Amino acid sequence: MIETLLNMDPLVIASFVGASVILYLTPGPDMMFIIASSLRGGARAGVMATCGIILGLLCHVTLAAAGLAVLIATSPLALDLIRYAGAAYLAWLAWHSWRTAGAATMREGRADLWRAFRRGFVTNLLNAKVILFILAFLPQFIRPEVGPEWHQVVILGGILTIGGFVADALIGIFSGLAADRIRTSSGLMNRIAAVIFGSLAARLALN
């Protein structure tokens, strides 16, 4: 795999990094989920949600490298099952955040941080659009003459996830700090998070 990396065109890698930066700065479901997690649990919860999302992305990259993502993407039933499962999970998060808003207090204990991590991981893993995105985005930068294609998928996927972690973690930190400054009640922040989770659920189910 090191040989494949050395054989890759620096211009191709630079183009990939540039395109990835644009993606990092484009508002999407992951960014909104991290913001909602930060509003609800603070900056550390946003970072832990980011860690969960990145782990989910690594799973998608692994599936793509193994060729399994293609099988899933070519099965409308599998995609629908994943999509509706993801929408149902986000809807549950919205209901849970709204239900606990009245009595909630600001918490960042180990259990709550682990919960943010787990929710980020499950949400990303059940996002069928990530599968399609990986299959549509990475192949544009793969060159068969460079080396095994799965090597290139792993390398490019690694670059994508590292950059994604840095960008999303910063978003989580700044969102959490901003929420701390304007926070009048954790219940209000939970309700805002519930609306974001609910909007994501509707978007995932209807698109």
Topology:
Blueprint: H1 2-7, H2 10-25, H3 29-41, H4 43-66, H5 68-73, H6 76-99, H7 110-125, H8 128-137, H9 149-182, H10 186-206
Helix pairs in contact: 2-9, 3-4, 3-7, 3-9, 3-10, 4-7, 4-8, 4-9, 6-10
Structure characterization notes:
This protein has 207 residues and is mainly α. It has one domain. It is built from 10 helices and no strands. α3 runs antiparallel to α7. The chain starts with a helix and ends with a helix.
Low-confidence stretches: 103-107
Mean of the pLDDT scores?
84
Could you give the order of the helices and strands? Answer: HHHHHHHHHH
Strand content: under 5%
- Tell me the structural class: mainly alpha
Quaternary state reads: single chain
- Rounded to the nearest angstrom, the radius of gyration is 18 Å
The number of E-state strands comes to 0
Number of domains: 1
Measured as a percent range, the helix fraction is over 70%
Distance between the termini: 37 Å
Overall spatial form: globular
Biggest pleated sheet: none
Number of separate helices: 10
